[in-house]
Design goal:
The chain is an alpha/beta fold. The protein is 41% helix and 18% strand. Strands 1, 2, 3, 4, 5, 6, 7, 8 and 9 form a 9-stranded mixed sheet that branches. Strand 1, helix 1 and strand 2 form a beta-alpha-beta unit. Helix 7 runs parallel beside helix 9 and helix 11 runs antiparallel to helix 12.
Length: 281
């Protein structure tokens, strides 16, 4: 392998037979010679396992068993990984062609870095997302996990993903990582993957993260952000749940208050329409 580092690509999967094949092909068609591909399936009941089996000879390790969600599956993948670097790819996301070789080419001084990140292209909007981040940036938004390569020893040092945060455990991981200046970080202006912007983080609430966000920002980023002391995101999530339960007046009132006090107007409109559709179906 000409001393090229081994890259462990970990994909958590559950009932994604409509997109998992494209994800798999985006990995096995990479031209980088030292990839370990791990799929942790949560005991899918659709055709996902059949699709995985179709490519089993090109997948280093896969399993289909019950788990406790995305981050539990990712933690299982970390335990199985033997690579120098770890990368997480969702089943509804796709690696850009040749991108692993572009990042870890022979002359790249990877030994000088612990955390490398780039950009993703949001699908279906085709918006490029990603830049060089500071602690102040992380108060408001996270680095997209589908653009991140982290040394396995760093992942192990920071600890497993905290499954109490079902949607934003990777956000907490990024905060922890930026709290340690000795971790050597590098931003590359490359598009690493296509990222499905209509995935779980857009339609599911993470109330634990919303409630803890102020304390997490203060602890890991050393920034006192009073705007999170009363967290309007929690109010919005309560509104979504009320809409789900057909409590339309109460739900819309809470969502409206939350929307007025944040800049994420499109997020609230999109989620409100989703839960209204769910409650009426």
């Amino acid at each position: 392998m000409n001393n090229l580092p081994k890259i462990s690509i970990i994909t958590p999967s559950y009932n994604q037979d409509h997109c998992i094949e494209a994800c798999i092909l985006s990995v096995i068609n990479q031209d980088y010679p030292n990839i370990e591909f791990i799929i942790i399936d949560g005991k899918s009941t659709d055709n996902s396992v059949e699709i995985i089996k179709k490519y089993a000879d090109q997948i280093t390790y896969w399993v289909s068993e019950s788990d406790k969600g995305i981050y539990d599956a990712m933690n299982k993948g970390i335990e199985k990984a033997t690579g120098d670097w770890i990368f997480f790819l969702g089943t509804d996301d796709k690696l850009y062609p040749h991108v692993i070789s572009k990042v870890f080419h022979k002359s790249f001084p990877h030994q000088y870095y612990d955390f490398i990140y780039g950009q993703v292209k949001f699908v279906p909007s085709n918006i490029l997302y990603g830049k060089e981040y500071t602690k102040a940036d992380l108060v408001e938004t996270n680095i997209c996990h589908q653009s991140v390569f982290a040394r396995k020893k760093i992942v192990e040092k920071l600890g497993c993903f905290q499954t109490k945060y079902p949607i934003f455990a990777d956000y907490v991981f990024t905060m922890k990582l930026f709290s340690q200046p000795e971790i050597r970080k590098l931003y590359l202006p490359y598009c690493i993957a296509e990222y499905n912007e209509l995935g779980a983080s857009h339609y599911q609430a993470d109330s634990n993260f919303a409630m803890d966000r102020y304390d997490l920002v203060k602890k890991y980023l050393d920034i006192d952000s009073p705007k999170y002391k009363f967290n309007y995101k929690v109010l919005g999530e309560e509104g979504f749940m009320l809409l789900k339960d057909k409590e339309y007046r109460k739900g819309l009132t809470k969502v409206y208050i939350a929307m007025k006090n944040t800049s994420r107007i499109a997020f609230y409109i999109k989620n409100t329409l989703y839960w209204l559709k769910k409650s009426l179906s």
